[in-house]
Each structure stands twice: as C-alpha cells, then as structure tokens.
C-alpha cells in the first residue's frame, strides 16, 4: 500500500511514498523477486548508517561561536569568504586586506564555526528525516527535530533570519551578497526534511495533530515564521537582490533558494515568478545555445562550477514541477516548465560525465567525473532522452550512492581544504 504523500518541495512526494512501500513490502516472495529494489536496500543501508552517526552529534547553534561577529549579536550568522587569503606583502598587518585565490579554499574559514555547524545542521537534518521517513524509527525523527529546533526555532539558540555577515573578507567588508550561497547550496533539502518530519503517515508513527515524535506543531509553526521572515529578507533586501541578479551559479542558487522557500510557505506566485525569471532571463543570459556556461568556464575549476550551476537549475526545475503538480491538484494552470531550457547545458557536460577528463575541453584544477551524476539522472527522470541513454555510463560518488532514496541533485564534490580530496569513483 502506498503511504501518505508528503508535500515535499523538491523531492517528488509520490515517488518517496512508492519507494517506501517497496522497501516495506511484507510479501517476502514478491520483495525478493523485485530485483530493482536491490539498489533501494543498498541505499537504505548507507542512509541509516549515516543517520546512526548523526544521532551522537549535535544539536548545534549559531550562538556556539566564541564571540559575536560585526553586529555584536551572537544570534547573527557569520562566515568568511573561502577563496580569500592573507596577503603575504602585508604580513605585519595580519595580511589585511586579504587577496583572492580562486578555487583554493583557505582553511582559516573553518575557524568561523557558524559555517561549519551550518553544514552539519543541513546534512544531519536531511539524512535523519529521510531515514525516519523510510524506517519509522522515532530516534531519527526526535534528533532531527532537536537539530532544527535548536538552530531555527528556540529563542535562546536560534539564528536571526538574515545573512548580512556571510562570507566577509577581513579588512575589506563585514559581509557580502554572495555569502547567501552558504545557505542556498543545501537549504532546500532542509525544507524537505521539515516536511517529512511534519507529515503524518499511515504507519502510525505520527503523533498528535501535527507531526512526528519531537517535531511539534509549535516547532513547525515557528520554522514557517522563520522562513517567511528569511524570504522577505531575500526578496526585499539589497544583498538578496544583488545575489539574485548575478549571471552565474550565484544567481541560479539564489533563484532556487527563493523558489524553494516560497513553495514551502505556500507563496506560489513567488515560485512562478522565479521560474519565469529563470526561463526568460537568467538561463538565456548564462547558458549559450550550444550549452556552454561562460561564467563557469572561466573558473579554475570549470567542470565543478558547470555542474554546480546545473545542480541549482535542475533543482529549481524540480521545485517548479512540484509547484505545478500542486496547482493542478487545485484546478489552476500549471505554469511554465524549466527543464527544456536546461537540456543544451546538460548535453554539453554529457561527454565528460560518461567519458571522463579527456572529454572536458576546459581547464580544471580538480576534475571529479561523478559530480555530474545527479544532475544527469534528474534530467533523465524528467524525460531527457540523451540523459536517459547516458545513465548507465555515469560515475557514482566514491562514498556510496543514496540517489535511489533521495532522487534530487546534491553537490557530490564539495570544495575541500588543501590536502582533502575525494576518493576514486566507480562506474554505475
């Protein structure tokens, strides 16, 4: 029996429910004959192993840092620009103002614990919520609730809903518009996590009138208020508008972030505006007719940034699909579809996605073939014929593949500090 359909933002709730039903198939003979379910079981093993690891970590708070940032308020998020380093010529001045080294991450940024903890919040909440959804193990739900409540809801520990001091550069500024990408890279997954925690299921794991063990109606309401305030800051503030206007991966992620939050809080008009902006303005300005992404190809890690930009845009296309489904259920017009605007760019990366470094005619300091796996699979699921033909030739991420249970693109090759590199991938 198909489970309750969660109203997820990016992930397809119907697909999640169907996957859960297959994993929980009590007909042993039928389950064993379902060869296609083997990747699901393997992915579940990976997922629950990671979730078990998160059970002993956190929760984290923006107030855990040693001292407040430029504003003096400990509840304000603060991070440092990753590619900016102390200027050796100014050693006596502490290297300030800093100088840029594109693609080289300064390990000093790790001293700003907000960014370090934020990544843990985002990842743990997502993994724990997914593990809860598929297993109904209340431990996962309870800890995911603690993580989200601590960072976003509880007055004593919550972050204020703005990013005025993200990716500051010592000696130059106290925050930048492009610091919004600290959130936009993975925050949409957190919204799906909150939906999964709040959804009651037919398994009987839901409690009360709203949500699972630990994630209360008050938590859910508080989290939605936080997101409405954050959305208002993104749409109405100077930083949000500057980031949104950028014709690069920054603009792509900004549009995806706004659309995701708008969908979560039920502002479907804002979602429609973001999709229309992408189709008619942003994509034509950032992707050429032959699929090149000029702003990303000039980077020292051209492959990384080309796939990175497409990650944002393919996720935005999925948000648009979910919004269209919701509007159709309500008897309204579906709105525009973003996918056709992206296929040329997907086709441009396909040769390297299936053939490796020799098929990528641009410079890249650290080529990781598997970085394209998720976005190609997402395009294939959307009906793109060339991507469908390429799926069997893709490289998987080296640490295992959980795509079968979370079929939406994730960043598979995060930029590492010097000396930290992913392992070798294996074919699908």
Task: Write structural notes for this entry.
This protein is mainly α and 428 residues long. The protein has two domains: 1-245, Chondroitin AC/alginate lyase (Glycosyltransferase, Alpha/alpha barrel); 286-428, no CATH class. Helix content is 51%, strand content 4%. The protein has 16 helices and six strands. It has helices at residues 13-23, 28-33, 38-54, 113-135, 138-153, 181-184, 187-198, 217-236, 238-245, 249-265, 268-286, 294-297, 302-329, 339-355, 373-381, 385-390, and strands at 78-80, 84-85, 99-100, 165-168, 395-396, 426-427. Strands 1-4 form a two-stranded parallel ribbon. Strands 2-3 form a two-stranded antiparallel sheet. α13 runs parallel beside α15. The radius of gyration is 21 Å and the shape is globular. Residues 201-210 and 417-428 have low confidence and may be disordered.
Number of helices: 16
Secondary structure: number of strands: 6
Question: Order of SSEs, N→C?
Answer: HHHEEEHHEHHHHHHHHHHHEE
Structural class: mainly alpha
Topology:
Layout: H1 13-23, H2 28-33, H3 38-54, E1 78-80, E2 84-85, E3 99-100, H4 113-135, H5 138-153, E4 165-168, H6 181-184, H7 187-198, H8 217-236, H9 238-245, H10 249-265, H11 268-286, H12 294-297, H13 302-329, H14 339-355, H15 373-381, H16 385-390, E5 395-396, E6 426-427
Parallel strand pairs: 1-4
Antiparallel strand pairs: 2-3, 5-6
Structure at a glance:
Helix content is 51%, strand content 4%. It is mainly α and 428 residues long. The protein is globular.
Supply database-style keywords.
disordered C terminus, signal, Glycosyltransferase, mainly alpha, Chondroitin_lyas, lyase, two-stranded antiparallel sheet, 428 residues, 51% helix
């Amino acid at each position: 029996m198909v489970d309750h359909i969660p109203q997820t933002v990016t992930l397809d709730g119907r697909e999640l429910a169907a996957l859960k039903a297959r994993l929980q198939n009590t007909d042993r003979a039928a389950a064993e004959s379902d060869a296609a379910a083997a990747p699901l079981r393997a992915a579940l093993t990976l997922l629950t192993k990671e979730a078990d690891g998160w059970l002993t970590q956190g929760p984290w708070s923006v107030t855990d840092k040693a001292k407040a940032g430029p504003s003096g308020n400990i509840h304000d998020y603060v991070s440092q620009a990753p590619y900016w380093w102390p200027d050796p010529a100014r050693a006596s001045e502490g290297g300030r103002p800093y100088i840029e080294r594109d693609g080289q991450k300064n390990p000093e940024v790790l001293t700003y614990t907000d960014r370090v903890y934020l990544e843990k919040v985002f990842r743990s909440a997502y993994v724990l919520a997914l593990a809860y959804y598929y297993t109904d193990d209340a431990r996962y739900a309870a800890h995911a609730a603690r993580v989200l409540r601590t960072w976003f809801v509880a007055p004593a520990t919550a972050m204020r809903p703005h990013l005025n001091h993200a990716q500051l550069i010592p000696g130059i500024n106290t925050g930048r518009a492009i610091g919004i990408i600290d959130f936009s890279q993975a925050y949409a997954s957190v919204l799906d996590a909150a939906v999964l925690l709040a959804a009651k299921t037919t398994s009987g794991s839901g409690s009360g009138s709203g949500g699972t063990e630990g994630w209360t109606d008050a938590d859910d309401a508080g989290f939605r208020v936080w997101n409405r305030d954050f959305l208002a800051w993104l749409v109405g503030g100077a930083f949000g508008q500057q980031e949104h206007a950028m014709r690069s991966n920054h603009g792509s992620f900004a549009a995806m972030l706004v659309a995701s939050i708008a969908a979560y809080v039920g502002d479907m008009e804002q979602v429609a505006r973001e999709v229309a902006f992408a189709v008619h303005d942003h994509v034509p300005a950032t992707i050429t007719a032959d699929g090149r992404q000029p702003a990303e190809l000039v980077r020292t890690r051209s492959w990384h940034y080309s796939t990175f930009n497409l990650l944002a845009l393919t996720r935005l296309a999925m948000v648009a699909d979910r919004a269209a489904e919701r509007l159709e259920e309500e008897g309204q017009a579906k709105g525009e579809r973003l996918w056709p605007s992206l296929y040329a760019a997907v086709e441009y990366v396909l040769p390297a996605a299936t053939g490796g470094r020799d098929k990528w005619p641009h410079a890249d300091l650290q080529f990781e073939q598997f970085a394209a796996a998720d976005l190609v699979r997402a395009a294939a699921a959307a009906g793109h014929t060339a991507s469908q033909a390429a799926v069997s030739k893709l490289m998987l991420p080296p640490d295992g593949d959980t795509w079968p249970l979370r079929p939406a693109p994730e960043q598979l090759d995060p930029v590492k500090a010097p000396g930290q590199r992913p392992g070798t991938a294996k074919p699908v």
